[in-house]
Amino acid sequence: xxxxxxxxxxxxxxxxxxxxxxxxxxxxxxxxxxxxxxxxxxxxxxxxxxxxxxxxxxxxxxxxxxxxxxxxxxxxxxxxxxxxxxxxxxxxxxxxxxxxxxxxxxxxxxxxxxxxxxxxxxxxxxxxxxxxxxxxxxxxxxxxxxxxxxxxxxxxxxxxxxxxxxxxxxxxxxxxxxxxxxxxxxxxxxxxxxxxxxxxxxxxxxxxxxxxxxxxxxxxxxxxxxxxxxxxxxxx
Length: 236
Ligand code: CA
What we know:
Layout: H1 5-9, E1 19-23, H2 27-39, E2 43-47, H3 50-56, E3 62-68, H4 76-83, E4 89-94, H5 98-106, E5 111-115, H6 119-133, E6 142-145, E7 148-151, E8 156-159, E9 162-164, H7 168-178, E10 185-186, H8 187-195, H9 203-217, E11 223-226, E12 230-233
Parallel strand pairs: 1-2, 1-3, 3-4, 4-5
Antiparallel strand pairs: 6-7, 7-8, 8-9, 10-12, 11-12
Helix pairs in contact: 2-6, 3-4, 7-8, 7-9
């Protein structure tokens, strides 16, 4: 999709939101959770056993795992242990399983939801965990890069004191790179963190936005291309 316009317009319909692995043997819960996640713009993948979960793990760029502890084959805690912190985990536990919750948090789970839970509560927890486990966000209100000054509060960008008009995604893209001066940021990371979805083929969207930002800043060398990777913000 050239320019990525249709992806931006229909991320939900295309299932390009962050991919979430749902591990739950109960059909009613698995269906409910998947439905709510999809409605919230995520891309759920539902499996019913621990074995299946571990098999799917390396096959996808997963953003999160929702893991029932009471699985028919491998114990949920063991699955969590084997995930080993590679992907954030929200455990689904029975209300009285306090020990499981404690152990779960010890073996690397990020949060838990006690059954019976409301799907809305679960989606809220998913959002919170993804916010927390996403890229570290030092919430600096004002960022500078050479002559460029970006203020998040006022959403203003100036170059040498002169205001520059950036589109919303251009602003976020520039802010994301300026927060990590000198660091190479991959196109996949930009897609997931600035655009909010993982669609490896959509790099053209990024190229177009980087081109616009460079043009508007008037100095292309402020955002350097890192060949085969992505981009980095570099002070002159
Ligand atoms: Ca179960």
